[in-house]
């Protein structure tokens, strides 16, 4: 080793030791005839000192030390005169005897400190420098811990980590595939896996019984904020289980991670049906750190000739506790907020429950005190609370109210990132009608689409609805939600060829198409497929949640930007004519 110690480990007990450290120059400063250097490595920062008038000092001084230079230094550990309580090594410094410059550095394009002056694009372009920053490095250390603890937990339960291929067949599972042309099989393409779904099911047919993999997945989706075209899942599958077994096993994993990584004991994870999640939160991944449930006001407000409510299919209310003192200006601003094109509400009705116990609403003309009191009762409002009401079409209003609830949660400080609330959402519908989802191939519009994926098992008691009311069929599918973020999802699978074929039929596949795309799986089901089911956790998202961050990007070493580009290596990029030719790809130069 070039060094005896790291820059993070020396303490007062080490005084008088002769040590050699290696690292990067964080900063230098001159003070009263001495020069101080902060030397940084992955483990911390250690202060180096030399005085200008000792012989060695003069020599070091001549060299000059600039930021990010790589040094190997030897010296004696001494006690600091002025200690730095904020630094674990802050009681000591190294009196230098020898310095070797291992490498020089250009001036970095941004400061390598926790608070940097580098904007997002610049940091991504020089990600290797960004990764020197303690805050970013800590995120990757957390990610490492999460991965280790995941493996520890699953290994103890006899799960085997098995690698599945990355060059596979295009089997649209929910999004578009990334495809890779094959040179040896001209005009044919591999696809990158959206998840190892079919392979893990085949492993169950093989008898592997308990599988997991921390694995890269790829989805060619229109990028929304904070989505990555390649991301990592903790992917799991088990045989001879029912939904309850999976929920227990992975509630256990969640509990293990919270305990080992954050030192938190989480309570039993409550369960909510999809139908109730939509009813009470307007959302299938509710943030349950706070209550503020949606209350159906339609019956309560009808018959009073207030046209907005009379005409509305749905009237929903929430009670924002402690917000009755909201000023007119705040309420106007909130009204503008719900009218934005994203929510497109026509307006916002409110009623303040004042501290003296009277209610004052924006529709006092139509509703008297007694009626307003009933409103308060219905949504459990207390004096000091503010009742907010939206009205309109069912889907739009429920969605808008769900957003308003989250916004009020933010404004009232109810969404503390250090507080965690986990939830299972169960009994999802098996299918949803695809009106024309921009993330799906256009040819899939105007037909039923699997809400989870086409291998999910309907609830046995709902199977007979497949012919008559496909939208009413519930699935043995579940999501795990933490703080309003869907961190994982899975299902009990179909393991019977005929049922799987039936499902492809409902999804609008011809027999031939189904056989061509999924024949390998259906054939496998004819060789003794065990009942099985599984789940996958979004690993990047889970890490960012544990790290208390909004964005997953800082938990990925080399992420893509919001347009799916890696600006550091400049990908995607063109390839040479020669490569194209070998692949048999002819790029049209004509504009379509
Ligand atoms: N393959 C599924 C997904 O990626 C997860 C699962 O059903 O296990 O969402």
Account of the 3D structure:
The structure is a single chain. The protein is globular. With 592 residues, the protein is of the alpha+beta class. The chain has an 8-stranded mixed sheet with strand order 6-9-10-22-21-20-17-11, sandwiched between helices. A 5-stranded mixed β-barrel has the order 1-2-3-5-4. The protein has helices at residues 55-63, 120-125, 127-130, 134-156, 197-205, 243-262, 274-281, 298-301, 307-311, 328-339, 369-378, 394-411, 465-468, 497-506, 511-524, 539-546, 577-583; strands spanning 18-31, 34-41, 44-51, 70-79, 92-103, 160-161, 179-181, 189-191, 210-218, 230-239, 271-273, 295-296, 314-320, 349-353, 359-361, 386-392, 422-426, 431-434, 447-450, 477-482, 485-492, 532-538. The mean pLDDT is 94. It folds into 3 domains: 12-103, Nucleic acid-binding proteins (OB fold (Dihydrolipoamide Acetyltransferase, E2P), Beta Barrel), CATH 2.40.50.140; 139-271 and 424-555, BirA Bifunctional Protein, domain 2 (2-Layer Sandwich); 290-415, GAD-like domain (Gyrase A, domain 2), CATH 3.30.1360. Helix 4 crosses helix 6 (243-262), helix 4 crosses helix 16 (539-546) and helix 14 runs antiparallel to helix 15 (511-524). Residues 195, 197, 453, 489-491, 534-536 line the site of aspartic acid (ASP).
Could you give the topology of this structure?
Blueprint: E1 18-31, E2 34-41, E3 44-51, H1 55-63, E4 70-79, E5 92-103, H2 120-125, H3 127-130, H4 134-156, E6 160-161, E7 179-181, E8 189-191, H5 197-205, E9 210-218, E10 230-239, H6 243-262, E11 271-273, H7 274-281, E12 295-296, H8 298-301, H9 307-311, E13 314-320, H10 328-339, E14 349-353, E15 359-361, H11 369-378, E16 386-392, H12 394-411, E17 422-426, E18 431-434, E19 447-450, H13 465-468, E20 477-482, E21 485-492, H14 497-506, H15 511-524, E22 532-538, H16 539-546, H17 577-583
The chain binds aspartic acid.
The site of aspartic acid (ASP) has 9 residues, from strand 21 and strand 22.
């Amino acid at each position: 080793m070039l060094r005896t110690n790291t820059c993070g480990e020396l303490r007062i007990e080490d005084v008088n030791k002769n040590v050699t450290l290696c690292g990067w120059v964080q900063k230098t400063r001159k003070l009263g005839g001495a020069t101080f250097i902060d030397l940084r490595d992955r483990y911390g920062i250690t202060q180096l000192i030399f005085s200008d008038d000792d012989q060695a000092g003069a020599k070091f001084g001549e060299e000059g030390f600039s930021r990010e230079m790589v040094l190997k230094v030897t010296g004696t550990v001494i006690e600091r005169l002025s200690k730095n309580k904020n630094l674990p090594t802050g009681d000591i410094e190294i009196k230098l005897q020898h310095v070797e410059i291992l490498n020089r550095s250009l001036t970095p394009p941004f400061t390598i400190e926790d608070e940097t002056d580098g904007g997002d694009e610049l940091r991504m372009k020089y990600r290797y420098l960004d990764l020197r920053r303690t805050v970013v490095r800590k995120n990757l250390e957390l990610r490492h811990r999460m991965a280790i603890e995941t493996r520890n937990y699953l290994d103890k339960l006899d799960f085997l980590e098995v690698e599945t291929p990355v060059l596979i067949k295009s089997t649209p599972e929910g999004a578009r595939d990334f495809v890779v042309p094959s040179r040896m099989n001209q005009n044919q393409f591999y696809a990158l896996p959206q998840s190892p779904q079919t392979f893990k099911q085949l492993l169950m047919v093989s008898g592997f019984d308990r599988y997991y993999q921390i694995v890269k997945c790829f989805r060619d989706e229109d990028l929304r904020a904070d989505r990555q075209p390649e991301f990592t899942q903790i992917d799991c599958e088990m045989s001879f289980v029912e939904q309850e077994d999976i929920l227990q096993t992975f509630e256990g994993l969640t509990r293990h991670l919270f305990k080992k990584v954050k030192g938190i004991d989480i309570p039993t994870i409550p369960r909510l049906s999809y139908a109730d999640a939509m009813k009470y939160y307007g959302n299938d991944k509710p943030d349950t750190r706070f209550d503020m449930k949606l209350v159906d006001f339609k019956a309560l407000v009808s018959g009073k000739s207030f046209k907005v409510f009379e005409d509305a299919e749905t009237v929903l209310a929430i009670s924002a506790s402690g917000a009755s003192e909201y000023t007119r200006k705040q309420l106007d601003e909130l009204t503008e907020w719900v009218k934005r094109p994203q929510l497109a509400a026509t307006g916002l009705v409110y009623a303040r429950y004042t501290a003296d116990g009277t209610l004052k609403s924006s529709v006092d003309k139509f509703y008297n005190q007694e009626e307003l009191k009933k409103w308060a009762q219905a949504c459990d409002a207390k004096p000091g609370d503010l009742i907010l009401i939206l009205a309109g079409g069912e889907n739009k209003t429920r969605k808008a109210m769900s957003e308003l609830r989250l916004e009020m949660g933010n404004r009232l400080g109810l969404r503390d990132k250090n507080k965690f609330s986990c939830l299972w959402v169960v009994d999802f519908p098996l299918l949803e009608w695809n009106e024309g989802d921009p993330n799906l191939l256009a040819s899939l519009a105007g037909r039923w689409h699997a809400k989870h994926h086409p291998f999910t098992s309907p609830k046995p008691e709902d199977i007979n609805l497949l012919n008559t009311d496909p939208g009413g069929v519930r699935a043995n599918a579940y999501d795990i939600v933490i703080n309003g973020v869907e961190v994982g999802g899975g299902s009990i699978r179909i393991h019977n060829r005929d049922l799987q074929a039936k499902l492809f039929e409902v999804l609008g596949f011809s027999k031939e198409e189904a056989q061509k795309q999924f024949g390998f799986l259906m054939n496998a089901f004819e060789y003794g497929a065990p009942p099985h089911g599984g789940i996958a956790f979004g690993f990047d998202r889970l890490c960012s949640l544990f790290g208390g961050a909004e964005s997953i990007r800082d938990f990925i070493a080399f992420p893509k930007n919001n347009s799916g580009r890696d600006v550091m290596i400049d990908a995607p990029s063109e390839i040479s004519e020669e490569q194209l030719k070998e692949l048999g790809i002819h790029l049209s130069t004509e504009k379509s």
